[in-house]
Amino acid sequence: MRTSAATAILVAALVTGTMLGAGAAHADRKHSAVQPSAPQPIAEVLRVGSGTVIGSVTERGANWLTIEDGSARVDVTTGHFLPEGIRKDDPVTVVGRVWRGGLIASEIILADGTPYGPASHAAARSARFDGDDD
User: Which residues pair with 75 in a beta bridge?
Assistant: First the structure.
């Protein structure tokens, strides 16, 4: 009787640990940055789960935009407000991962080559605080 109770507790602990580990792995995958790669069609990136796409802006909100490239159309969300100046029909490059049918952008490169995303935010913060305090 003690052996079966101990076995049940061990199995429950393993199952719980496995589920928690899978949840942590999923959370890490959701929030980790995607490395830039050669641009691919939007339809291909939606199929494989992450990548770099180039498309034209069809709609824009405060922290999202919709782009299309002829193969597909996708909503792109960011963790911050988009910079001013992004307009309909502007070309943009987006690096990101697929989440619930859209892309979560880790980097957006504007038509003039200006990067926008976590890396550019970190660089701006670094530059702001690297000055000498005389």
Answer: 66
Q: Which pLDDT score, from 0 to 100, does residue 21 have?
A: 47
Computed over every residue of the chain, the mean pLDDT equals 78
Whether pTM > 0.90 for this model: the answer is: no
116-134: average pLDDT: 59
Alpha-carbon distances of 68 from 6, 32, 105, rounded to whole Å = 57, 24, 15
Measured at the alpha carbon of residue 114, what is the angle toward residues 96 and 102, in degrees to the nearest 5?
A: 20
73-88 exposure pattern, b = at least 16 Cβ within 10 A, e = fewer: bbbbbbeeebeeeeee
User: 110: which DSSP letter?
Assistant: -
Q: What CA–CA distance (Å, rounded) separates 31 from 8?
A: 35
Predicted pLDDT of residue 84:
83
CB 107 within 8 A of CB 119: yes
